[in-house]
Amino acid sequence: MVHLLFKKQNNLIRFFTLSLSILLVYVGVHLLHLESSVQGMMLFLIISVALMGGYNLCQKFDQDMLARYILFIGFVMRIGYMLYTPCTVRPHDLKALSIDSNGNAAYILTILNGHLPISNEGQFYHPPLYYVLSGMVISVLKPLLSLTNETDLIDCAKLVSCTFSCATLYCVPSLCAELKINKPIPLSLVAFLPNFYLMGGRVNNDALAVFFMTLVLLFSIRWSKNQSLKNTLILALSFGLGMMSKLSVGVFAIPTGLLMLYVVVKSIKKHNLLKTLQSLCLFAVVSIPLGLAYPLRNWILFNQPFHYVLDVGSAGFASQHYSLAQRFFSFPITKLFHPVYNNVSTDYNIWMYLLKGGLFGEFQFNSVSVVPAILLFIYALISFFMIVSLISSLKEKEERILYLVLAAGVLMVSYIVFNIKYPYGCTMDFRYIAPVFVINTLLFGSFIDKNKDKKYGTAFYRLSIGSIFIFSLLSIYMFCVI
Q: What domain of life does the UniProt record list for this protein's source (predicted)?
């Protein structure tokens, strides 16, 4: 896999090579019964690669080489966490591992039976792409690993989540290149944010949706510069397949649509309108049928609204008992470390929940050390830096930066409206706005690059680098020993 990152290849070939590598590692670990040794192997591999990388970088420092080592270790963390974490640990909406249930497991088992769900109950209302891909992976591994029970079958679906969590990380260097940002800061933050490990080891459609939303960001920027056939098709497929994964991907139609309108206006001034309109027509022809096919199917069969979200009900949740001011316009700092982890039944403040959720999701870990608390403190500091960067970005005139700010703003507004409409603890989860974190790391990297040589910029730069370095080490350590 190290060779994969250093060799120049087509990105599609790299994606398939990465997918095959993850599949082979999964098969090897299970055939040799090495599940209990995975964390030790992770530490050994990461330390070895870090020493090799440190030696090479001391000989000749190169940011692209550093980015490759960060990328590789980020892959190791995602793949390792997926391997040592059973599908029943820290799940979301998995429910009973039976076809008679209506959770994510039942959806996959229904696909394995050769048909789509015949109702929209529970998780069956979701589009099918994740579940179809999971069924394909299971069909390959079932005879290979002689799998017989539902638990082992469903566990294989983690491979889909892990692959696309790695693919999201792989998009970050390309986004940095498009924005002319130095790669290490954004890449380190996305590589070692623990919630991306969690998504990569889970059986649901979050990692797939986050990947397509990240791909939409990347190819919206590329399309704005060059309305080529390739950029148009990939952008259209990102929207269409994204909405076949999770309908919330469609929220990016607002910022991308406005960016397209801006490009149309520019093309009129440059007397190049026909080419732009041809590109937009192709985009619509590909993306709209893909994106709306399943919502239309569910509307016809079940009278399901296009904006439908499963209402889990208020039982066991706390947010509906608090005012909007308490939930959205306060930050109860006394609760930062007491407790360190979120509690889905008692927590109510959206910003505190997001802060802790970026690290630990909605779960508590069997870690009695001070590492989670230190990790949370440093992450809070980095989050403050990213807020400063976001505010500074509002003054930018660069259209690509403004597009990212708009995309983050639209997703945040959608997320807040979602939480007002469904005032439950689980709706505050970080996974619903993970692409905002990716955007904020890019804005943070841009801010650092533009200000590190200014009067106070050097100190800010050094503090940021130090914080990110410690954050990365603690994240790696915690998730190699839990």
A: Bacteria
